[in-house]
Design goal:
Helix content: 25-40%
Number of strands: 9
Structural class: alpha/beta
Bound molecules: 3-hydroxy-5-(hydroxymethyl)-2-methylisonicotinaldehyde
Order of helices and strands: HEHEEHEHEHEHHEEEHH
Strand order of the largest sheet: 3-2-1-4-5-6-7-8-9
CATH superfamily: Ribokinase
Length: about 290
């Protein structure tokens, strides 16, 4: 038997030893499905599991890349009532009154339309969530630009004010801050500006978009400004890096870490996942959440 093979004998023993229920930290991702498994809800759930958190996904949309059309994104929204139903089921199962592990930490990934943004904002408004991690996925390759602009504006107006932690990439940080980002100094300025706008802790990602040997991210929470840096692994972005970073922050917050600790752990998790990435026939390799093992 290899070390990774499933050990059914050990399972049988532990089955009889205890039937106590488990109480892991729990976290919800409200996100889109990305069919190839690199990004979106799939990346979030894998990250939660690797970090010891019971993961829940409520789907907002289904994205299927189109290999016949330059890998543009085919985007299908989930019906608004179905999104609301998922949120209702989840918050009832893990609400404060449920007697179950309490769900107070949520990650928000791709919402994709103004209608979905309103549905999600409404569900978050009752304040169940102490930690709201927003990965402000602003544009989906192949989405119609007019539609994407409405979505950006709705996200800024309705979801950003609810966030306690925001993880913009280079493009999203420019869009949210209104600043041009060309180096670490301007990335810092953008992180400060986004904190001022939102009140949230900010982890602004330079990734491979800034020149230099290191992948640099900037953390700012109103008091602490910290540059998180790791040697770049190649110069090409890896699918799922942004989703997994925000998901790792979410998992750590669900377990009780401070925002700064969560940011540091997430950076290390993603760096190891990129080093051990999975080759894909799509234009980007995919981050491997098992990499840190
Ligand atoms: O990486 C951003 C992202 C998030 N969520 C979904 C996606 C993508 C990118 O493809 O498809 C569902």
């Amino acid at each position: 038997m290899t070390s990774t093979a499933f050990d059914s004998a050990a399972l049988a023993v532990s089955d009889t030893a205890s039937d106590a229920v488990s109480s892991p930290a729990v976290a919800l991702t409200i996100a889109g499905s990305e069919a190839t498994g690199g990004a979106g809800a799939q990346a979030d759930l894998k990250t939660f599991q690797e970090l010891g958190v019971f993961g829940i996904a409520n789907l907002t949309c289904i994205v299927s890349f189109d290999p016949k059309d330059n890998w543009n994104h085919r985007f299908v929204p989930v019906d608004q009532q179905v999104i609301a139903d998922q949120l209702e089921a989840t918050t009832a199962a893990y609400g404060a009154a449920s007697g179950a592990p309490v769900l107070d930490t949520v990650k928000i990934g791709m919402l994709g339309s103004p209608a979905t943004i309103s549905t999600v904002a409404e569900a978050l408004a009752d304040g169940q969530f102490a930690n709201v991690v927003l990965d402000p996925v602003l544009i989906c390759k192949g989405q119609e630009p007019g539609h994407a602009l409405d979505t950006d504006q709705a996200l800024k107006a309705q979801i950003l004010p609810l966030a306690t932690f925001v993880t913009p990439n280079h493009f999203e940080a420019e869009s949210l801050s209104g600043l041009e980002i060309t180096n670490v100094e301007s990335l810092k300025a953008a992180a400060v500006r986004i904190h001022e706008l939102s009140g949230a802790a900010v982890l602004a990602k330079g990734g491979v978009r800034l020149a230099g040997p290191d992948a640099v991210d900037v953390y700012y929470d109103g008091e602490t400004l910290e540059v998180l840096s790791a040697p770049k692994v190649g110069e090409v972005a890896v699918s799922g890096a942004g989703c997994s970073l925000a998901a790792a922050v979410t998992a750590e917050l669900a377990k009780g870490a401070t925002p700064l600790e969560a940011a540091r752990t997430a950076k290390a998790f993603v760096t190891a996942g990129i080093r051990n990435r999975v080759a894909s026939g799509a234009p980007f390799d995919a981050l491997w959440q098992g990499g840190p093992r």
